[in-house]
Specification:
The protein is of the alpha+beta class. It is 31% helix and 32% strand. Strand 16 and strand 17 form a beta hairpin.
Length: 351
């Protein structure tokens, strides 16, 4: 029989699985091993005559958004405990090896991996699941939670957690590879990446998404459009723009605002959005237009479709954001991985 692992029942009873902190001298893999207890399926059947319970591995970002980590842990424990699932919770530290942590959970045969955090945490947890036969669940506890909104996942944590063991569907979505990282929503270069880079975590926790708008207006005063070199599959473009965005999902922060029409997570294409504008006055007008109306009817946005990859070069280099996290600077190449990840969504979620 294959070797499996399950959470230590004593640890579950004491509520201690999620309390261990990762010390600087410890590796993430060691922490996962401490949180679980080896056993064999045949011994479990001999002991009780029952097949082993399903198991979930939860990655919790304790500083994401404004939610209380204790409430998140309680929600997780109730959702899985009531359904008879085993689970263990891994708290991120800001210096995590997600390939080791999440990849280890996949290799050990967990049935579900859950990301409890914002869009950045979700994309980091999703990376090791690319191409694996383990779906991703999402508990939206970040600042913007754009992906969960796009997928119709409830903002209420208890309702979102109920999907994992209750009535749900699995939606196969496209993924973007950005160097050695993965993104699910968008990769941006320009005003949005500067805004994300310079919005501090404490302000986000205090005032939520308004923190981004506050930084946006500060950046707008000194921002200048510049020349981009953009290669969409084999087409080479040289726009003077204030923003270039590679979109896998359409939601622009909050519904009903969208980056553009017919942008879907599962259409096997990436949408390249080019935002033109040379003067500060033009930029201010365009930003107000986007915030109030989205891109509907906008004459300052041009689109291209990519089915393979998008490469972007600037001089001087600009910061690159992927799903709300700064990943480096230009040049950057974004590769499309069609239908590479399965995500738990509501059963009635429209495709």
């Amino acid at each position: 029989m294959p070797r499996c692992i399950a959470p230590d029942p004593t640890a579950i009873a004491l509520g201690r699985l999620d309390s261990e902190r990762l010390e600087g001298r410890s590796r993430p893999k060691e922490r996962v091993e401490r949180a679980v207890k080896p056993y064999h399926q045949d011994s479990a059947i001999e002991d009780g005559g029952h097949a082993p319970a399903k198991r979930a591995f939860v990655v919790l970002n304790p500083v994401g958004g404004s939610s209380d980590p204790a409430f998140i842990r309680s929600t997780v424990e109730t959702a899985f405990g009531d359904a008879g699932w085993d689970h263990c919770i891994y708290e991120t530290t800001g210096n995590d090896d997600f390939a080791a942590v999440v990849g280890g959970a996949v290799r050990e045969g967990f049935d579900l991996v859950v990301a409890a955090g914002g869009d950045g945490t979700v994309s980091l947890v999703a990376g090791p699941l690319i191409g694996a036969d383990v779906p991703l669940g999402i508990l939206p506890v970040g600042t913007a939670n754009v992906l969960s909104r796009e997928l119709g996942i409830p903002a209420d944590l208890q309702q979102a957690a109920a999907l994992f063991t209750g009535d749900h569907s699995l939606r196969a979505v496209d993924v973007m590879q950005v160097g050695n990282r993965y993104a699910l929503l968008q990769v941006g270069i320009g005003l949005d990446s500067l805004m994300i880079r310079d919005t501090d975590r404490e302000t986000k926790r205090r005032i939520g998404r308004r923190a981004y708008l506050q930084t946006l207006w500060e950046k707008l005063r000194g921002h200048r459009s510049q020349r981009f070199t953009v290669v969409v599959d084999s087409e080479r473009l040289r726009p003077i723009a204030w923003q270039v965005l590679v979109a896998n999902a359409g939601t622009l922060g909050v519904r009903p605002l969208r980056w553009g029409p017919n942008i879907r997570l599962d259409d096997g294409e990436l949408d390249v959005c080019l935002f033109y504008g040379r003067t500060i006055a033009n930029l201010g007008r365009q930003i107000r237009y986007l915030i109030s109306r989205g891109v509907r009817g906008a004459d300052f946005v041009r689109y291209r479709k990519a089915r393979h990859s998008v490469s972007i070069v600037t001089d001087p280099p600009l910061p690159v954001q992927a799903d709300g996290e700064i990943t480096g600077t230009t040049p950057v190449t974004v590769a499309l991985l069609p239908h590479a990840l399965r995500i738990v969504v509501p059963a009635e979620n429209p495709r």
